[in-house]
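This week, look over our next protein:
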Amino acid sequence: MNATSLPDAFQRDPHATPGPDSVWFVFDGHCLILTAQQDLPTGPAAPLPVTDMSGLGSLDGQSMFTAALDGDLPGGYVSVPVRSAFGTLGDTLMGVAGYASQILDFHRTHRYCGRCATPMQDSAHERSRVCPNCGLTAYPRVAPVAMVLITRGHGPDTELLLARGPNFPPGMYSAVAGFVEPSETLEAAAHREISEELGVTITDLRYAFSQPWPFPHSLMIGFMARYRAGEITPQPGEIEDARFFPVTDLPTLPPRFSIARALIDQAAQDALKP
């Protein structure tokens, strides 16, 4: 399990019922609500005024729910950006928190049928919403993203092609990624994004691993590739700067819970093996 995926022991159940020690993932916009002690709220009923409550499932015998804060935040609680909770809740609960935020977003954006505007209802047998009028069924959205880390050279002379977007923190560089378009394979998306955003071509594209990324509803598919040819030409508005960095002198990198950092760390580790 990684820091943004559901733990293997989690039992999905959209029709879960609250128990005496239920765990509540309550969101205030894009922020997660914790107790003043930096814990998740627990109890047989929502301890806060909430709306859009939905069952998630159970973990280690505890039922879990997601909901949105309805009104002002009461005393004794704090509202923190979801990413700030990494390191506080631990990987297991953060994996559920990512799932909770996506399910809540799904319910809030599918109140009405997109075909006939009739109020949608929860399906009785799966995680979906169904229109009682025209029968349209909607499922939680997952947007696939192809991420590619490009290398050149060998051993300790290996270099990584990293880029930074205009909204990155100062000095931070990462691997390049882009959304997969309709009727496009993952491999085609990887080649297209590299060509569009960096102006270079790659070879030896190979799958590495994937990571759910609930900000808000992506699935990151990580690839490694070798630089083939071309002069680095950053795409205006998308890439602020891009360059090759020696594995022995890397810039500020994304946080360790991200797939980009996992790709970079793996490439550096492989390059520096004795």
Q: What stands out?
A: The chain has three domains: 11-109, 112-141, 143-271.
